[in-house]
Amino acid sequence: MDFVLVVSGLAILLGAGDALVRGAVALSLRLGIPALIVSLTVVAFGTSAPELLIAVQAALDDAPGIAVGNVVGSNVANVLLVLGLPALISTIDSRDCDTLRSFGQMMFASIAFVGLCFLGPLTWWHGLVLLALLGVMLSDAVMSARKHRNGDKQDFLEELEDVDPDMAWWKVAGFVAIGMVGLPFGAHLLIEGARSLALGMGVSEAAIGLTVVALGTSLPELATTLTAAIRRQADVAIGNVIGSNLFNLVGIMGVASLITPIAVDRRFLDFDLWAMLAASALLAPFVCGMIGMSRRVGAAFLALYVLYVAMAFVPIG
Fold it and tell me: How far apart are CA 55 and CA 77, in angstroms?
C-alpha cells in the first residue's frame, strides 16, 4: 500500500506539473510575455514544480531526509541514469555542444550548495543566497539567449508541443487549477508513502529520498533526454540535465529553505553531496568537447548509478 501511495503521488505530481506548465505558458503568451522569457522562467520553474512541492512538503512534515535526498539523488540520477541510458541506446555526440558556460554555472552552484549544507541547517538566509545565485544565472541566460536567438514565438511553440497560444481562458484557468491543486495533493501522498516505506523496510528517509523519490522525479528528464538522443540533439540532451540540476539546487532548495528550515542529515555531508559533485564533474570532458558519449560511456554511467543506489541503503557516518 505504501508503494501504491508513492506511485500514485508521483503520477499525480507529473500530471499536475504538466497541466501547470501548459496553463502557465498559455497564460503568459496570452498576456503578451515574450516567448524567450517564458521558456527561461515559467517553463523552467513549472517543470521543477513536483520537486519543489516534495521538498517543501517533506520539510514541513519533518522529513528533511526526503527533501534533501530528492534533490541530491535527482542530480546524481540526471547525470548517471538520464544521460547513461540514452547514450547506451544511441551514442550522444557531444563534441560540438555549446553547454560549457551552463556547465560552469552548474558546478559553481553545486559547490556553493555543498558549502551551505555544511553551514546548515538550511534556513532563510541560505535560501536567499541560493535564490540570488538563481537570479544572476537567469539574467545571464536571458542575455545569452538574446544574442543567440531572436525569441520568435513560433520557434518556441514548436519546442513545446501541445501548447496553444490562443487557448480559451477557461481552459487556461482549468490547467492552472489542476496544477495548483494536484501538486500539493500528489506531494502529500508521495511523502506519506515514502516515509511509511522507509519505516517498513527499516531504512532511513534519506535512502528513500535518494532513490525511489529521486528516480521518480527524474522520469520527465529521462523521457526528454531519450527523445533528444534519438534525434541526435546532443545540446538538448546535455542542456536538459544541466538546467535541471541547476534549478534543483538554487531554485528548489532556495525556495524550500526560505519557507522552512531544513536539517541536513550527516550521511549527506559524509557521502552523498560528494557523490553528487563527482557525478557532475564527470560531464567535464563531454561538455569540453574532448570525447563523445559512446555506448561504452553509457554503460559505465549506468553501472555507477546502480552502485550509487546500492550505497544509498548502506548506513554511512
Answer: 17
